[in-house]
Amino acid sequence: MDTEKLVDLLKEVIVDHECILTDNADLHSYSYDASFGVHVPDVVIMAKSTIEVSNIIKLANEHEIPVYPRGQGTSLSGGPLPVKGGIVLDLSKWKDKLVIDPGDMVAVVSPGVLTAQINNAALEHGLIYPPDPSSSHVSTIGGNLAENSGGPRGLKYGVTKDYVIGLEVVTPEGEIIRTGGRTVKNVTGYDLTKLIVGSEGTLGVITEATLRLFPKPQATQTLMVLFEDVVVAGKAITNILSSGILPSKMEIMDQASIIAVEDYQPMGLPTDVDALVLIELDGHLAAIKDELKQVIEVCKSVGSREINVAQTKQEEAELWKARKLVSPAIVRVKPTKISEDATVPRSQIPEMFKRLQQIKAKYQVDLVVFGHVGDGNLHPNIIADKRDHEEMRSVEKAVEEIFRAAIELGGTLSGEHGIGTLKAPFMEMELGEVGLEMMKRIKRSWDPNNILNPGKIFPEPGQRLVLTDD
Amino acid sequence: MDTEKLVDLLKEVIVDHECILTDNADLHSYSYDASFGVHVPDVVIMAKSTIEVSNIIKLANEHEIPVYPRGQGTSLSGGPLPVKGGIVLDLSKWKDKLVIDPGDMVAVVSPGVLTAQINNAALEHGLIYPPDPSSSHVSTIGGNLAENSGGPRGLKYGVTKDYVIGLEVVTPEGEIIRTGGRTVKNVTGYDLTKLIVGSEGTLGVITEATLRLFPKPQATQTLMVLFEDVVVAGKAITNILSSGILPSKMEIMDQASIIAVEDYQPMGLPTDVDALVLIELDGHLAAIKDELKQVIEVCKSVGSREINVAQTKQEEAELWKARKLVSPAIVRVKPTKISEDATVPRSQIPEMFKRLQQIKAKYQVDLVVFGHVGDGNLHPNIIADKRDHEEMRSVEKAVEEIFRAAIELGGTLSGEHGIGTLKAPFMEMELGEVGLEMMKRIKRSWDPNNILNPGKIFPEPGQRLVLTDD
């Protein structure tokens, strides 16, 4: 169907015609996300109600037009890219509902609400919404739900999916369903809630979510521990966890990350250590005092080089600043950051570090490693220049080898960023042919015309990793 | 196919022919579970390996013979009942693997391992497997996985599903797949792990599971609080949770439960109170001391009648004994216990109690209410005699009205017992036609010949609740 006719049909179901964008400049601003590739849609609709979404999808399904749901476009895996043209369904403007119910300890939210706003609203009632992706101040809950976003607090509190107890969803045929509800426990039939969260917009458009909240921990305590050997750091992490302590965060930075940060904004970090581990304890004040002692003992006993305990809230913030600066620091070196999130079982972290160093040497790539080490969710980041096609070919090979290493060590392609377009070529490597086929069966049975976010998760025949925008 | 021919075919794929049961007495011992109905299978196989399960299911799929996976048969909803005859696949004898890996903080288990054994094995490493269904000393992890079992600790720690990170599964076509893995975070494709857990054996047979373990809390503290009004108890529960305290357990017993226990085994409980709430705090010793003070303050401030704090481990056990005696106490009154688990949002607990009392009066049934009040997961139990068909008709009506009340109050048919045969007739009431259809699509796409646990979850045309064995 030509765009003009499509727009005419859309105007019949969209009340506010200004929510339909067809201008070239507008279309281009919806053609990319925080990963790779530029794909211009035919039309963008800023949807603001369930009935609108339902009507748009019914129309799209009838005419077999691809629909690409989108939040703020912070995806690192290509989730919202309109790779087959069609309609981009921008849900980021739909933010009218953010209700905290302290009695039921839930939040009910519209898809366009920013994730950090949910936590802020919960805090007013002495509650928290634990999932804390680094992008939470700019990313929408809708995007977080589609990708099942994680974050540092995942170690103790789990990821987005662990907090979703109910959804309103528009199916790929435009029908409106409700999954789960307002109760924490629910075993009535298949768990569609947890199937849809993390399905990257391929099984339905989430139009409302009911999220669990948790009591706010009384206090937090941060410490920074330096290690001359990443294997020793790995041992410390395992020993802390098996001593009965579950920190709220355990983040690692490798030597390359530390050097990048010191070059960017000197903080007095020693650049000759192999690893820096940031630990946050949370909970009751007396408990974390005691746990702090134990953590220090464990670290010393395995042979840490230096331990720095934050004495004030300001010192706590200072320590976390180092971790926050990694991303801005590394993109100063080269403009293109390939941010992976291959995840391995905790016991394999030292081996994964070794493999990453080998890959770095083999392909001569600028690799830095940091991330959520407590749950094995590392972030190997390669810094490159995407205009340099030769360099990008090496990067592609290095990335593929990173995935292969993670899977060989019993891990997974993605801990929290999702598959999208970028990791689709590697799905079968992890899941096997039948495993992938069972996922495809669900997709086909729900979306027979393949209109919802087509071109994602499932590899196209012969698809390979391409880290350029061309 | 006649049974003789089926057994001949099975003998070709089962190494140990003594694992094939066809004797009438044997078949009858597999004809029931802890719910209602007697259904005799054609043959029982005690399977002990993945390849055996795969071969059995391939055979069954080819010849369109129903297969009913079964653990210890403690299901309260009819999960393992062979309602269409065929093969019962007894997995309770397959218990060879129970490996605790303290480094990765996981347990890897065979389906026939008893749930309590997993927790006991974890404790040896200072870890716990938190899900604690009341039946955990007799029920298998395979059954718990199929039904997504809960338990008192669900309030703080969640249910079975929250602890499953990887599965080996035989599909309805006999293919072997692995879902998830050994990492806590995994967003590679659809979450088949959480889809299969709780699917009541209709989407696959779980042949191995990887379960998360948690650090063992340092200490526990139990207290019993008596209330003259269940509404006041509800207020106390909400206020405790919103004051930043998350107890590990919060169990309620209504007056009828207390009276039943006192009649059965006098413990000195006051029989004139409206509700008794048992609370367990766990965590760091200093933290729970402090939390105990706060809980007492909250209870007093809303107007509790009496608070009894356990001073020793023995007193703690004494207090919990009251709760444990409810089930044996009530079946002494009449032989048939209809144990429901309708669950409502926490704020609706007082209203649900009111509705339950109205239903009790309307249908003149022996109704007692107890359960996991902290998460709204009540257990309204009706005591009757299933041989009295007239009484059972009233019970059926009462049960239906309990489901209706739970759904009206924003709750669900089942918090932890599953749908099975018993609640299938009410599925559409909660899910709507399209919601149910989306579940059916998954079932059809995975199990085109409908051989895995047919007759469960999804209602047959015109199916209604029948609480007799005929």
From TrEMBL, chains A, B:
Signal peptide: none annotated. PANTHER family: GLYCOLATE OXIDASE SUBUNIT GLCD. Gene3D superfamilies: 3.30.465.10, 3.30.70.2190, 3.30.70.2740, Uridine Diphospho-n-acetylenolpyruvylglucosamine Reductase, domain 2, Vanillyl-alcohol Oxidase, Chain A, domain 4. This is Glycolate oxidase. Keywords: FAD, Flavoprotein, Oxidoreductase. Residues 37-216 form the FAD-binding PCMH-type domain. Its EC number is 1.1.3.15. InterPro entries: FAD-bd_oxidored_4_C, FAD-bd_PCMH, FAD-bd_PCMH-like_sf, FAD-bd_PCMH_sub1, FAD-bd_PCMH_sub2, FAD-linked_Oxase-like_C, FAD-linked_OxidoTrans_Type4, Oxid_FAD_bind_N. Its cofactor is FAD. The keyword Oxidoreductase applies. Pfam families: FAD-oxidase_C, FAD_binding_4. The keyword rRNA-binding does not apply. One of its GO terms (molecular function) is (S)-2-hydroxy-acid oxidase activity. It comes from the Bacteria.
